[in-house]
Amino acid sequence: MFEAILTVCLMGAEPVCRDRLVPGYAAASEAGCRAALAETPPDLAGLAEGVDASGPVCRAAGEALEVAEVAPGVFAHLGRVAEPDAANRGDVSNLGFIIGGAGVAVIDTGSAPWMGEALWRAIRARTDLPVTHVILTHMHPDHVFGAGVLMERGARVWGHAGLVRALADRQANYLESLRALVGEAEFVGVQVPGVTDPVAERAEIDLGGRVLDLRAWPVAHTGNDLTVLDRESGTLFSGDLVFDRHTPALDGSLRGWRAVLEEMQAMAVARVIPGHGGPSLEWPRGAHPLARYLKVLERDTRAAIDEGARLSEAVETVAQSEAGAWQLFDAYNPRNATVAYTELEWE
């Protein structure tokens, strides 16, 4: 297979460039790709300010994300349980897509444009149906910055009603951090997703005989968590409301998260695709480690507050009994203890 590629560069004293997929021109031969470009040239007017481009040209198809079919028509990509860096290129969260009778819905798009492009190729290898919907489960950068290629092809973007403001407040810091960790070239021409369809409580998406239930939750992991339930297979994409192996990351409310997780555990679903780990968990058993961790985090934080421990002291002791059960514990548990202490000390 061949596809159209555009080389985009951030212009400066030393230009920083990357090759960017131009979707919709894949063909079995290079000649077929060129013919498609000649017949319908791509609109390049949407390039970010300060970004220059050359091409497009036709090349052999690039990498596709590895995905597993966890249920008929439901696919999940397992991100690494790691911090984003140049070696993993930011591939540190789970993504997925669901194929209906008339279109495809993508759930989360990864840290960087290349991930959305690689996900596009994985979808095209399995169906020619259009990608009609992109669903973002929350604001964190490892879930949102690959959306550009999918938006370019006309996908509507769904998210919690609070996502737009939360992402707007943080996107500059998120991108600055990712550029430092992963490399500036991976983010040339990155597009920050705009939510076309905000969900305040619940919504439905019909993919053509296949209905998805979207639910916006109260403040928990973050203030803008959204889940996606495929009715047909009973598969729930939880976003980061569920972690597996990866130490949970608290960026909302500890008490809220515990309450939401308890309600989720009562849901009659066949399997859960967590935001990290898995990629497919039996339910509700798959929630037990997270529920235990959050319980210990609250118990130990309350004990530290009752004993008069300062925040700087509490972060050294809270939830240390959980250290052996999770990866990246030293990176995330002190942050969780800080958020929990700040929340609970003012009760």
Automatic annotation (TrEMBL):
The UniProt record lists the Metallo-beta-lactamase domain at 92-276
**GO BP terms in the entry:** antibiotic catabolic process
Q: Which UniProt keywords apply?
A: Hydrolase
Q: Which InterPro entries does the entry link to?
A: Metallo-B-lactamas, NDM-1-like, RibonucZ/Hydroxyglut_hydro, SoxH-rel_PQQ_2
Please give the name of this protein: Hydroxyacylglutathione hydrolase
Q: What class of enzyme is it?
A: hydrolase
What EC number(s) is this enzyme filed under? Answer: 3.1.2.6
Q: Has UniProt tagged this entry with the keyword Hydrolase? A: yes
Origin species? Roseovarius tolerans
One function term, GO molecular function aspect = hydroxyacylglutathione hydrolase activity
Record-stated family: Belongs to the metallo-beta-lactamase superfamily. Class-B beta-lactamase family.
- SMART domains named in the record: Lactamase_B
Instruction: Tell me the first and last residues of the signal peptide.
Output: none
Q: What SUPFAM superfamilies does the entry give?
A: Metallo-hydrolase/oxidoreductase
